[in-house]
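FAQ

Q: What does a record look like?
A: Structure on top, sequence underneath. For example:
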C-alpha cells in the first residue's frame, strides 16, 4: 500500500518527541539534538496540536508521557531504530564499495592505467572499479562516483574539472618517419591509420592542408588498435596527445604535427554535492596528475 505522506506529522516534530520520550526531558533532548530547549518544546506542542491529544506532561524538571504518548513513543522507537540500522548498513557498505569510474576504454588504457600504480601505492585500501564505455552514462542511475569525459566541459547539472589536454597530434613510429620534420607533400604520400566517423580528426587534417579521403589510409574504429598499429610503423595516426604521452615519452611514437586548440579536453565530471571519502581521495589524486 502506498504511503500517504501528507497525513504524517513533521519528521522534525516526531524526532523531537522521540528524543523527549527517550530522555524524559526537554533540556536533555535539546542537547541531544543540538537545538534549544524552546525549540524542542515547540515541536512537541506542534505535534500534540496536529494529533489533537496530549502526549507529555511536565513533572518537576522533567516530563512524563501520557498513555497516548507511551503508545506513540514505542512506535517511533521501533521506527527510528530501523532507520538508524538502515543508514548504518548503508554507510558500512559505502566504506567498502570501490570507487566507480566511467570512462572510455582508450583513456583507461593509454592515460589512466600507466599512472594507477602511484595511486595504489598511496591508497592501498581504496578499490577502483573502472567501467569503460563510449556512451555518456547517467552517473546517478548507474551509481558512478565520477566520469572522465571528452568534450568542452559543458555538461548541464554536473560539476566538471579540467583534467588533461585533448589537443590532436599527428604521430608515427620512428622507424617509419625517422627524426625529420615531414613536409606537406611527404604527409600526403604516407600511409595513415585513421578512425572512421570522427569529424574532429578530419577537420584537423584539413587544417594541415590534407584531404582525409585522399590519403592512403587504413580505417580502424578502435583507438587502442589504431595506436598499436602506428606503434608498429603501419602508418601515421591522429590522436589526442593525452593518449600518446607514454608512447612519446618512451620513444615508441614521435609527434610530427600538433594542434594548438585548448578545447575539447578531458574533464573529471561528478554529480553536485558531497563525495564519499574514497571518491574524494581518488579525485584529489586525479587532479594532481595535471
Amino acid at each position: 500500500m502506498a504511503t500517504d505522506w501528507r497525513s504524517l506529522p513533521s519528521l522534525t516534530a516526531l524526532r523531537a518527541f522521540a528524543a523527549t520520550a527517550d530522555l524524559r526531558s526537554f533540556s536533555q533532548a535539546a542537547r541531544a539534538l543540538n537545538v534549544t530547549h524552546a525549540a524542542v518544546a515547540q515541536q512537541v506542542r506542534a505535534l500534540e496540536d496536529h494529533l489533537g491529544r496530549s502526549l507529555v506532561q511536565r513533572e518537576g524538571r522533567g516530563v512524563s508521557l501520557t498513555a497516548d504518548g507511551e503508545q506513540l513513543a514505542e512506535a517511533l522507537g521501533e521506527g527510528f531504530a530501523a532507520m538508524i540500522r538502515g543508514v548504518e548498513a548503508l554507510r558500512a557498505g559505502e566504506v567498502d564499495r570501490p570507487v566507480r569510474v566511467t570512462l572510455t576504454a582508450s583513456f583507461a588504457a593509454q592515460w589512466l592505467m600507466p599512472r594507477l600504480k602511484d595511486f595504489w601505492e598511496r591508497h592501498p585500501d581504496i578499490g577502483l572499479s573502472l567501467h569503460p564505455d563510449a556512451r555518456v552514462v547517467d552517473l546517478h542511475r548507474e551509481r558512478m562516483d565520477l566520469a572522465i569525459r571528452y568534450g568542452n566541459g559543458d555538461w548541464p547539472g554536473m560539476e566538471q574539472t579540467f583534467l588533461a589536454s585533448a589537443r590532436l597530434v599527428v604521430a608515427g613510429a620512428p622507424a617509419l618517419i625517422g627524426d625529420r620534420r615531414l613536409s606537406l607533400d611527404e604527409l600526403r604520400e604516407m600511409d595513415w591509420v585513421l578512425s572512421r566517423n570522427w569529424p574532429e580528426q578530419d577537420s584537423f587534417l584539413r587544417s594541415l592542408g590534407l584531404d582525409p579521403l585522399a590519403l592512403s589510409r587504413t580505417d580502424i574504429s578502435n583507438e587502442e588498435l589504431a595506436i598499436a598499429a602506428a606503434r608498429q610503423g603501419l602508418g601515421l595516426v591522429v590522436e589526442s596527445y593525452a593518449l600518446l604521452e607514454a608512447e612519446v615519452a618512451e620513444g615508441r611514437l614521435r609527434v610530427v604535427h600538433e594542434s594548438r586548440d585548448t578545447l575539447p579536453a578531458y574533464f573529471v565530471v561528478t554529480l553536485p554535492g558531497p563525495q564519499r571519502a574514497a571518491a574524494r581521495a581518488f579525485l584529489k589524486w586525479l587532479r594532481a596528475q595535471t
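Q: Is there anything notable about this one?
A: The chain has a mean pLDDT of 90.
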